[in-house]
Write a structure and sequence with these properties.
Strand content: 25-35%
Order of helices and strands: EEEHEEEHEEHHEHEHEHEHEEHEHE
Distance between the termini: 10 Å
CATH superfamily of the largest domain: Medium-chain alcohol dehydrogenases, catalytic domain
Largest sheet: 7 strands, mixed
Bound molecules: nicotinamide-adenine-dinucleotide, zinc ion
CATH class of the largest domain: Alpha Beta
């Protein structure tokens, strides 16, 4: 079968000689409908965040059940499902609570298809357990794939700050890409706070306005901080969601977040932050959440089925993976690119 393989630093190739896996025991074989292209792939490809193994990329996956191992019950061929991405041990307390994104054993094992193990940028994908599948019912797996990360990750980040996102508060969203454009819609639907969105191009800022941002600011502007402070006034922003995670955006976040606010850094942009007592307002919680839980993914499917969130999608072939990654490096993708076998 065809697959987009990561061979090492900046070496991604589309190959045709991968054997189609056969599921055993708890395993499930999926026929892939779509595999989303996440910026985290670029951190793997360009910066070597996963080293020493060759594997198939794609950690945002959806498809149809093709075949199940002898122990799998409750699924039949043709069922449309999402693949929950962070694969934990399945047994520890966080895993039992469905929070496999915080599995106790995360540091011990390669976990996650497309993150060291074979992912979904291929005709078929082997999932280690049906526990990791979430049914999508009438949703199309081609369109639904990004729900597993581009929607789940901001959903989980927003949910933990929800009590602070009241109608008299401001929330700042930095980066209106794959994750950020869904974050705006989730905020619009489940929170009351007024949204200020930041990106670095006029196109992305116009897009943010369409998705519910009340204000847009180009974070390249030298006075971006002052522009945001002028909007929020003395109370500042109760929540900042940073989908870039560069030193400059973290710095911006620390200057616009309010007393007792949340500064949530989702982006893995390699930024640095040096704590100093005067550098952060009192009471601020600074967090670096990772993905979301299995049950939160079910809630995200609910949002999509109710048409409260819509993922803006560009469709591409597996063969075009390298071109798509290049467009992502240049910030040229609107919403999410999805590779379709
Ligand atoms: P993307 O490439 O689709 O979007 C990034 C957006 O940020 C683009 O619109 C770009 O123009 C904008 N941007 C770049 N520099 C900026 C700046 N200085 N100020 C404002 N905007 C800026 O990326 P994505 O797939 O949405 O991923 C975003 C980040 O989140 C990546 O670092 C990715 O690795 C990370 N991520 C983290 C998790 C997690 O669980 N923590 C999960 C998925 C992705
Ligand atoms: Zn991702
Ligand atoms: Zn675990």
């Amino acid at each position: 079968m065809k697959a987009v393989r990561f061979f090492g630093h900046k070496d991604v190739r589309v190959v045709n000689d991968i054997e189609r896996p056969v599921p055993k025991g708890d395993e499930v074989l999926l026929k892939i409908g779509g595999a989303g292209v996440c910026h985290s792939d670029l951190h793997i490809i360009d910066e070597g965040t996963v080293v020493g193994t060759v594997f198939t990329l794609g950690h945002e996956n959806a498809g149809w059940i093709e075949e199940v191992g002898e122990n799998v019950e409750g699924y039949k061929k043709g069922d449309a499902v999402l693949v929950y991405g962070p694969w934990g041990c399945g047994h520890c307390k966080p895993c039992q609570q469905s929070k496999e994104n915080y599995c106790d054993h995360q540091s011990e094992q390669a976990y996650g298809g497309g993150l060291g193990l074979d992912g979904g940028m291929a005709d078929y994908m082997l999932v280690p357990s049906s526990r990791l599948l979430v049914p999508i019912f009438d949703l199309d797996p081609v369109i639904a794939a990004p729900l597993t990360d581009a929607a789940l990750t901001p959903y989980s980040a927003i949910k933990r700050s929800l009590p602070k996102l009241m109608a008299d508060e401001y929330v700042v969203v930095i980066g209106v890409g794959g994750l950020g454009h869904v974050a705006l819609q989730i905020l619009r639907e489940i929170s009351g706070a007024e949204i200020i969105a930041c990106d670095v191009t006029e196109d992305k800022l116009a897009f943010a306005k369409q998705l519910g941002a009340a204000y847009v600011i180009n974070s390249k502007d030298a006075d971006a901080t002052e522009q945001i402070q002028k909007i929020t006034g003395i109370k500042k922003a109760k929540v900042v969601l940073d989908f870039v995670g560069a030193t400059s955006t973290i710095d911006l976040g620390t200057k616009v977040v309010s007393l007792d606010g949340d500064l949530t850094i989702v982006g893995l942009g390699g930024g640095h932050y040096q704590y100093s007592m005067n550098g952060l307002p009192f009471g601020v919680s600074m967090t670096n959440p990772y993905w979301g839980s299995r049950t939160e993914l079910m809630e995200v499917v609910g949002l999509a089925r109710q048409k409260k969130i819509h993922i803006e999608i560009e469709k591409h072939k597996l063969d075009d993976a390298n071109e798509v990654y290049e467009r992502m490096r240049q910030g040229k993708i609107k919403g999410r690119a999805v590779l379709i076998p």
